[in-house]
Amino acid sequence: MRIEEIYQCFLQCDSVSTDTRKIEPNSLFIALKGENFDANTFASEALKKGALFVIIDNKQYLTDENKMLLVNDNLKTLQELANYHRKQLGLPIIALTGSNGKTTTKELINIVLSKKYNTKATFGNLNNHIGVPLTLLSFDENTDIGIVEMGANHQKEITELCQIAEPDYGYITNFGKAHLEGFGGVEGVIKGKSEMYQYLEKNHKTIFVNIDDSIQNEKTKSSIRFTFSLEKKADVNIRSTLSNPMVEIILNDHITIQSNLIGSYNANNINAAITIGKYFNISDNDIKDAIENYIPTNNRSQLIEKNSNKIILDAYNANPSSMLAALANFRQLEGDKIAFLGDMFELGKESLTEHKKIIESVINDDTIIFYFIGKNFFETKVSQKNIYYYDSFESFLSNSPKEIKNKTILIKGSRGMALERILEII
To answer: What is the residue-wise DSSP string for 322-379?
Structure first.
């Protein structure tokens, strides 16, 4: 079936779904395959639950020729449909990627631009080869600007996502030690993320750049770009950033923005949102209001007060770069401090080395009590009186510290560690 015909069916639907457990009335259901399932088997069920049309790629499950759209490859059709829809709408799209801070930056950009425009952005972190097309299909004729987060864990993935979304603008938060296993090291990360720069430059599009980052600055010198800096002459100059513990930004010497985000590592996430806001003619006062009213959620740099303790919950994700940044910020804070740190995933052959580097970075710090949780930290442990190791969360739970009161606490680890569970024992 031609994509134009499929698109006409899509236009009759109110939403798109890939999960029969979340079918909405009058939706388009796309029967994707996973490692352990084939959603083609749920095609008839999707119609019974209210889907208006179903896209399948296995003729065996074709039971309703009027409602079932048979294609060669469901995933490819999803991506082609999203790209076709993007072209029909013709709206400006901002894409962003990076090793750390993508989702927070995306949310900040969205809340700033929504002061003037009807914006839509990636929901949560649906930022892969399925999430990006679903994001594009959520845009409609009332959307003024689309904001698309792009994640990647191997080469050519960002290229593929850019070809689907065809962004007009792009921003890379940073290059860090994330997904080293898939990218093959830090140089691989830089190469993989920079595919966004290559796409935008080739298509004469605009790149937002933090020119204080030497790699970003060098890689975009020949591109159309809009820049920000604390140190150099740029399109947007940020006068200063402070963090104690919330990030404070001083803009244009007279605008002070007091955020609800913890840690100096969040400063450039805010600065990017400021810069993109100014590019799209959002007033300084509206930018200030938007950022000051943004409250982080979903275990990302949340400040929680519980039982006399002040807790920095940053347990959504972790890699060596973000872990070191979180620890550097944590050291600046006052009070009796405890850090609960969990294993970092997807580091490949560098995993034990990177975990040991984290331990070595704190080995002489006797101002914080450290609890390292997970087999990678356990296997690289170095003994010191203020450092404790547990090879699993269950082991930690059976030997967890009691009566934690009046402490300043950092909780950080990869998503798979689910360290937010520590809140239950504090």
So the answer is: HHHHHHHHHHHS-SSEEEEEE---S-GGGHHHHHHHHHHHHTT--SEEEEEESHHHHH
Maximum separation of any 2 CA atoms in the chain, in Å: 70
247, 270 contact by CB (below 8 A): yes
Nearest in space to 419 (alpha carbons), one of 299, 271, 281:
299
The letter for the amino acid at 99 is: S
Q: Residue 419 contacts by C-beta under 8 Å, 6 or more apart in sequence?
A: 315, 340, 342, 373, 393, 411, 412, 413
Q: Which residues 6+ apart lie within 8 Å of 200 measured at CB?
A: 162, 167, 169, 170, 206, 207, 223, 224
Backbone angles phi, psi at 356, to 5 degrees: -65, -35
Nearest to 230 by CA among 286, 169, 285, 274: 274
Q: Is 292 helix (H, G, I), strand (E, B) or coil?
A: helix
d(CA 146, CA 129): 17
263 in Cβ contact with 325 (< 8 Å) = yes
- Contact present, 103 and 126 (Cβ < 8 Å): no
Strands lying side by side in the sheet with 309-314: 302-306, 309-314, 408-412, 337-342, 368-373, 387-390
Cβ within 8 Å of residue 115, ≥6 positions away: 277, 282, 283, 286, 287, 289, 290
pTM, to two decimals: 0.84
- Helix (H) or strand (E) run with residue 110 in it: helix 102-113
Burial class from Cβ neighbours inside 10 Å (0-12, 13-18, 19+) for residue 77 reads: buried
- The confidence score (pLDDT) of residue 245 equals 79
Rounded Cα–Cα distance for residues 228 and 224 (Å): 14
* pLDDT tens-place string over residues 236-288: 999 888 887 789 999 877 899 999 998 888 999 999 999 999 999 999 999 99
d(CA 106, CA 15): 22
The two tokens of residue 68 are 């079932």
Residue 356, number of CB atoms within 10 A of its CB: 16
